[in-house]
Fold this protein.
Amino acid sequence: MAASGTQSTPLQLDFSNELLSSSELFESRSRNHKIPVRGQKEFLPNNSEQQKTCLQKTLDEHWMLVTEERVERVGNLVNAEWIPEEKLVKLKSPAGKFWQTMGFSDQGKQCLFPEEALYLMECGNVQVFYQDLPLSLQEGYESFLSAVTVTFHQYQVFSHLKRLGYVVNRFDTRLPSLYRQQLNMPLSNNRLSKQLKRKWNQSPGYRLCNKKSISSPEISAGQHEGEINTNVPCSSLEAPGQLQTQKAFQGEILKSDPESKRAQGRNWWTNIPSTPQPDSFQPSIWYWDFSCIFFPDLGSYNANCACLPPPDPSLLPGALQVRECHMAKWHRNINMKQEQWSKQERQREQNRHGCNINDDQSVRQCRNWVEYLELVEKRRSLQHNKKPTHFREQEVLPLAQPRKCSSHRELLEHINIIQSYDLLAKNSRLPGSEQWRITFNVYQPDTEFKKSCPGKPYTRLCVCSFDGPVPNFHVLKQLSLQSSDVSMTYAVVDHGDVSFYSFKEFQLPTDVY
Amino acid sequence: MDGNETEPSTQSDEQYAGSSEWVDMKNTSDEEKAENQTVNINFCGSTPLLWRAADIKMCREEVGVIGTLVGSLARQPRQNVRLGRPLEILQEEARLLVESGKATALRHKELDENKGSRSKAVELYKARLEQSYEEQCALALEDKKAVLQRVMDEKQNDLKYDEGAEQAVRERLESLEKSFSFPRSAMAVQLCTARAGFSQCPEEHAFLAADWPMPRDERSETRFRVYKDLRRKGFYLTAAGKFGGDYLVYPGDPLRFHAHFIALCLTMDEKLPICDLLAIARLGSNVKKTVLLCSPQNSSDRGEETEEEVVYSSLQWSGIV
């Protein structure tokens, strides 16, 4: 075909001058990869010849760099296809080195998120096709970037950090909160639960555990902790959520309520009419129906049964099989846990709740999570409406009594009315806002990053613009809570400039002792 | 491309007329040429971008539109010091270009699904790839031959003339024609930056003023008038978000000169809190730039004698010792 001149002539004519000819393509293999250095800038143009030639030289270099087109050998390119329906790019040839930090497998296929594919297109690693035609970068920008995938601003931040070598991946807003993770809640994100499943099957410790099955007391505890370990660092195992449940168990065991003993179906594990949505890609609501999930009835342990019936398989991850659970051993296990608390932790726990949650009669009357949450909500709204009645009822007293304080510090603590505010402390339920959300997790370049086990990110990013509003304190707090133990960074985009800001808590030093 | 060569292609274009949409990039009829000469502004979300190198060059040299390069540089993609296409331009720049008739703002449409035109385009793409392969193959052969020839020449000119070695090279040169193979994986292909002619050519539509992606409020109007006035006076402007202003004002091309002013656009009756004013004045003196407060005159206030469209006041933080 190429040999016939009549055919090649119109072919040559039809394309824009930005398309390179074969000889240009061939020559580009010996292309220079150096970037010319720009000299010092000057203050004022003075129309001198020297300035003019200098400007011309800089401009020439500039145009050379801007005009240059990407040329790669076919053998070095990974081919991929854009699937607009799924907003994904699927690889058609084996991935390159970038697979260490980017992409994921879905049903045996290697996929890239649009932002990853676009960045790799810019790096000259991947050629993306759509209906058998390669996409230009322009088409990539125009088709890949949107409000449903990643916006142009977000991509600017993404590619800025990628170019610096950072590992950047999407922050999954659907990821359950720390609290939910610790309660062994199912993940609504399909992909993540798949990842979990794989991990489970690979872990030899787990298989051992499963074989030993019921004979080992670790089974139920191990199941919990294993799940948690895959999601959160071990250090946070003893966080409020879990402690609370453990305490609840304990309380019921100690004062076994005769009524609850008789109550039928009050079981955490079974009788759940669950409607799992295994293959829905949309962010789904939790498919656990909390009005049907009861607190585990450990109170009846003394009386009729010595073991819990097996849990509903739909609540368990993957191919897990848990048979009925001997409670005597589990009970012992819980107590062991309690002894491991450090003094500090116990103190913190007491401060948080004021008193033991099991001493509260109305809490004890709750039969399931929904009722408990309603109670908490009711109390909160009551607290908000409450008038400061104690002003009228009680005698007005000074904040500090003479001779009651032995040091300056103690005195200062007594007269301290406004408590300092901890960004992460109170687990208040702030309504999430649509405008502000965490977009990316960022990992440092030098660390040995593994996709299967990314570990704790270096920071999390929220992308905003100078044209938009400044995040207020509400937003700061909400995003910090969502980000939990990882710091938040705000990436601000202004016409191609990306700058990073982070809001840090600052404790004023007190130098009086 | 001169007239003689383009003549036949015009005819062939007429044959395809209407059926093949991809034949639009280098057309030779006068209207299309004119259309091709206007700058294409493509919006990504609400951000105006320039993709074609020729457009970027023309805008900088003829209209003084600087903008910011935001893509990875083709030559060295993994660094942030020098970036490459696309060029992000200011809303004001986009508006000025469109209003002066130098550019068309284009809206991107979904990738084309038209089977007929697509299959034609795919065919053409494959033919072009094949042609490119054969040409590169021939070039590689020439290249290799040239190398061997050079080696042979060197051998011949060598003082210690070695007939055996020269003979070996000669044999290799002769057998090259038959044994030479150019693997497909070694073929070089271009990864296009701007949308190329052979691509699916989604129908792009020019924006009507009403669908401009950014709403036109008082603030954008103020900014636009200041931009136009400063541009008219010969200054080069870029965004000044990092300095807390609207524009950075350069006396010459920003590639070679430092900015002198930080321009802050305000309407005549806008109230600026004193702390904001102090902050920007202090910042300006710290970065060795003068802060300019720029307020466009209301047309009704402007008398016959005042020619100035925009009133500028400079602000300098000066301590008296």
Residues 43 and 187 of chain B are 34 Å apart (CA to CA). The longest strand of chain B covers residues 290-296.
